[in-house]
Structures are given as C-alpha cells and as structure tokens.
C-alpha cells in the first residue's frame, strides 16, 4: 500500500461557522493503480487531494487524521521535509493549466526548475563552470518529448501563452514527472480541455502509469472518464466517502443510492432511449450539515433512521464498501 | 424521424461572421500588414425544422457560439442570409429586429455572468415582459410568478438577487427570462456545461418538458456529445467555422461518415467500459485566422487522401436519409 489516508478532516473557519470540507476521509491507494475520486463540486474531492500534499490553503487546516505515505505519516513531517517530498515523491497536476504555469518564464525553464530544486541532476565541472544546466536542459527535452510536445528544442524557450491548452497540460505533466514520483495526483486534468484533447491527455496518463508504474489518483466529476481510466473508484459526497470499490463493480452494480443516482443522471451514448433521472435538490450546505447520512435529503430510499445515525463503511463485497443504512 | 416535408423554421444560407483585428496606421503603411481576419463562422447552410432540437457540437473555438449568436442577431452577420419563418431577418433594423427577437431567444452559457447582480428576479423577469407589452402591475406579477413555477423555482424567490441562487437555479432564471418573451425558437448556448451532473439532468429535463409544453424549437449548442445525443433530433458537427456533418442523432452516432465525427465520437469516455477503438487526433484545432486551405480538417485527418484534401474544399454531399457530409472520401 503506497498511500493510506485515515479519518482525515479538513475545516475552514468562516463567518457563519466551520466549513467541514473533508469530513472523515479514509482511503488507500495501492502501488501501480489508478484510483479515481468522483464527486460533484463541493464534495471535497479537490481538497482531499490538496491535503495529501499538505497544501490546504489558509485559513483552512487539517484538524485530524493520518496520511501515511510509504508508512510515514505526512502530517508529522516538518515543512522542510514536505518541500523535499513535493514534486519528487508525490507530484500534482492541476486543473487549469493556464493559471498554473507562470506566464513570465519560458515553459522549458519551468520544467527545469523542478529538476533544479530537488538537485536531481548532478553536473561535472568543466574549466570553472559546471555543466549541470546543460544536462538538466537535456533531461527537460527528454521529458518534453515523453509527454508528447513536438519539437521540444524549439519550444523550450517558448512562453505558456504560445502553447495551446493541451500542450500546457502536457508541460504540467512533464513538470510533475520530472522527479519520477511514485504518486501522481491529478486534479481534473482534462476538465478545461476539449474531448479530442482530453483523449490525448488521458492516453498519456495511462501510458505513464503502465510504463513507470506510477500510482495515479485522478479526481474528476466526469463518470465516463473515471469509468474508463481508473481501476478503483471512490465516490465522495459532502466531504465523505459514500462508496468505494473496483470501477467495474461500481459502474455496473452501484450499491449506494447516490452512485446509482449519478449514473442515472448522465445521458448514455450506448443507450439513448434510457431516460435520464435527475437527483432532486442540491448538495447540502457544508456548514449546517444534516446529521446522519449527508445524502438523506435527496435520497429516494431515505428512512427515518437515516437522520442522525452516523454510519461506518460496510463491506458488501470483497473490496467494495458502501456507507448506507440499506446494507446494515 | 425527419420527414422531408417538415416546415423549416430557421434557415441560414452561406452565413459568415468574421471578426476583424484592425492593424494600426503605422503597421499598415510602413510594414504593409493587413488587418487580421478571424473567420469564426465561414459559410454555414443550416435548416432548423419546426419543433425539433438541432444539436450543434464542436470543440472550443469552432464557431458554434458565434453561429448561435449570429442567428438571433446578437452579432451582425458579415455575409450570407438568415431566414426565420421564410422571412429574411439578416438585415433587419431596430423595430423589426425587436419583433424578431421576441420570437427568437437565447439561453446563455454562464449563469453567473448573464444575470445582472444588482437586479432582483422580479426586475430581471420584468424586462422581457415590458418589452413584450404586458401592462399593469397585476398582470406582470402574475406572469412572473407563473414563469417561476414553470421553471421549477418557487414564488418566494421573486425578491431574491442572483447571488442567492445556486448555478442550477440561476440557469432556471435564465430560462424563465427567455420564456417570458413567448418565443418559438430558442438558442440554448451550452446551458448545462457549467453545472454538476445531477443538476445538469434537472435542467435537461426542464428544457425537454418546456419544449413539449410550448412547442419550442431549440438550437442546442454543447461540446458534450452525450448531452447532445440525448436531447437532439438532429446533430450538426462543426469544425473551424464550417459544418462538416449533419444527420439524425441515431444515424450520426451509429454511422458517422466524416473522419472528424468519428474521432470525436471515439474520444468520449463511456461508463459502460466496452473497449472500443479510440482514434486519437494529432495536435489541436488550427487557428481560425489562417484556416488551412482545402478541407480544414486535413492537418489532423487520419485518413487524408492526398493533394485533393489540401487544395479543394469538399462539397456538401447528400448521403441519403437527411445525412449530409463534407468530405472528399465520399465524393
């Protein structure tokens, strides 16, 4: 097991009260797998990802829980140790490549920065100067070629605005890969992109997973993407995991009413006649969370017991767990 | 589904919309640079039948929004004609244009930007009512309440401001605003793309319900193919300012002809995990400033035939059964 998160809670103070963005998250990622985290906006999926790198923005903070990466609890590490870890052992690809890349530095230099900060490439002295920079540059060109940026030597000195959205996302992936991480966190890497470009990027991530054995955690709101590209899936709602299990099982035999609702609410290409069913209502307010199951207000199977009973994850099948009173 | 004798509600003939970026006097006189022309919509012939939903799909920058906005005359077309119920509307001015806009409405993409934050729902919905000539406080009030209920909001929302609503609710206000004009034609410009899946389904349901109730005709613009497929009777695929394929939804999805449509369809991730042959296109959409000569798709086309694709523009072929395609492969 590469990553093991236990009962993680992230809270943001606000003028109206505490916002419980992540409310007891427990999940694990095995070596070499692609794990998908699926949920609507406000379900806490991005915040869970950020907290794995301890990048939760102020004034939010991780109030309790454990994040074990290779057996070490990341929450016990010093800031300096965390800095050494980020971009080397764990790296992240963000949602919006246009705002993530720095507009005033050439793209190639930004990839080189990732190598330089961790001192990944050692140089040799030639006369009075080290050739480290040249070697790093070579490695950057390799990385750019690997992620599929055409003619890397010409594009090394180009600026982000000269790159298209897909190319920017590739550059970000190159930065993330620079440290040859064991764990790659991808936060909606294709949301800002068109379908044909999305297919290219997902293909690339898949190849990275297969060739380097990199574990990938992919956060997405698109069930199609999650169903096709992940091995296991975690469904989040209001800061809580409602269901997790192998992707195929979850898609074919979803156990939780929310997962079922989500699957019923997307139009299917394979079956047009199938009527879509909307889930009534909206995501609950994270400040005044209803006690008990967070989904009970929108659930068609809701019973009186759903209110007020805090449930644990229940194993319905091997590796398939669900948090719902229907299965107790 | 589409019979040939169906009544055409909206028709465009060779519709073009160019945007110009004017160069400075200095650049023109000394450096001999020409104005930059962005060919967003470059010759589109499209018919929308009465009562149908025509889906318009394409990647960002292909001109689908520009086409939608040109049709309801939010943009003045650079060239070509638009007909509405047989009347030419592409050159209407002022008063007649106002009349046309009563019949043709638009729902905008971004519900956060398309509602005035300083007006209450009552004020927002009053504007189209006044413009339609509804007089009297009581009538207006009743109609606003009726509209709110129609789109699934409640009467207590009437004095709220847009920021008090969620994205899905705002989109409902946008829909109510369009409905207030009693239109027969609505351009829905990506009405669901900024919403979560569960909310998306609610809005699609609402739009379909309203279509049945008011006999509306939709031009539904989206980049999400599964949504387009679900809601549309016919689908037009756009690429770089041109429509490259047009067919009944089922026909298009079961038997796509154009290589671009094929690639687009294969790129959609589906939930049902059937592994299919995925056509991955190289590169990105070229710039509409200097679109490729010949077939615009030839720079990325996996089945390019040769020189003819680079030199000749493919003609709009009828492949039978209302299926049209613009590709040299079928010439």
Total domain count of chain A: 2
Main sheet characteristics of chain A: 8 strands, mixed
* Fraction in helix of chain B: 25-40%
Question: Which CATH top level class of chain B fits?
Answer: Alpha Beta
Strand portion of chain A: 15-25%
Mean pLDDT of chain B: 88
Query: What is the name of the CATH topology of the largest domain in chain A?
Result: Rossmann fold
Helix content of chain A: 25-40%
Q: Looking at CATH, which topology of chain B would you report?
A: Rossmann fold
The CATH class of the largest domain in chain A is Alpha Beta
Please name the CATH architecture of the largest domain in chain A. Answer: 3-Layer(aba) Sandwich
> Based on CA inertia axes, which overall geometry of chain B fits?
globular
Question: Which strand order do you get reading across the main beta sheet of chain A?
Answer: 6-9-10-3-11-12-14-13
Q: Can you put this structure into words, describing what you see?
A:
The complex is a heterodimer of chains A (328) and B (331). By secondary structure, chain A is of the alpha/beta class. Chain A folds into two domains: 234 residues, P-loop containing nucleotide triphosphate hydrolases (Rossmann fold, 3-Layer(aba) Sandwich); 91 residues, P-loop containing nucleotide triphosphate hydrolases (Rossmann fold, 3-Layer(aba) Sandwich). Chain A contains eleven helices and 14 strands. Chain A has an eight-stranded mixed β-sheet, with helices on both faces. In chain A, a hairpin with a 2-residue loop joins β13 and β14. In chain A, α4 runs parallel beside α7. The mean pLDDT of chain A is 88. Chain B has 331 residues and is an alpha/beta fold. Chain B has one domain: 3-Layer(aba) Sandwich (Rossmann fold). Chain B has eleven helices and twelve strands. In chain B, α6 runs parallel beside α7.
SSE layout:
The complex is a heterodimer of chains A (328) and B (331).
Chain A: E1 3-14, E2 17-29, E3 34-38, H1 45-52, E4 61-69, E5 72-73, H2 79-85, E6 90-93, H3 97-100, H4 107-117, E7 125-126, E8 129-130, H5 132-146, H6 152-155, H7 165-177, E9 183-187, H8 195-212, E10 215-220, H9 223-229, E11 232-237, E12 240-246, H10 247-252, H11 257-265, E13 314-317, E14 320-322
Parallel strand pairs in A: 3-10, 3-11, 6-9, 9-10
Antiparallel strand pairs in A: 1-2, 1-4, 4-5, 7-8, 11-12, 12-14, 13-14
Chain B: E1 8-21, H1 25-29, E2 36-49, E3 53-57, H2 64-71, E4 79-84, E5 87-88, H3 94-103, E6 104-107, H4 121-132, H5 137-150, H6 167-179, E7 185-189, H7 197-214, E8 217-222, H8 225-231, E9 234-239, E10 242-248, H9 249-254, H10 259-267, H11 307-311, E11 317-318, E12 324-325
Helix pairs in contact in B: 4-5, 4-6, 6-7
